Amino acid sequence: MLITGGAGGLGVATGIKLKGFKIVVADYSDDVVNKAVENYKKNGYDAVGFKRDITSKEEVKNLIEFTKKQGVFGGLVHTAGVSETVNNVDKIFNINLK
Hints:
Elements: E1 2-4, H1 9-16, E2 22-27, H2 30-42, E3 46-51, H3 57-69, E4 76-78, H4 89-97
């Protein structure tokens, strides 16, 4: 199961419900991805991580290919998102909706 925003609160809460599935944790930085994967593994989950920028089409393509190679592309949970001020409408749109 691929979880975008998988290292954040909603992504982790979703991942906890997916024990028995292999989980691909995708998020914006190596540090948060590695910490989430480490926590999943400590608790008996089968998890791998992938740092990505959801606003980059090329990185999303790479994420999909990585996920396919893991043999787990059975589903997607999109929990990536940001909450910003109105001044960053483009950033909000690119991450939350695009």
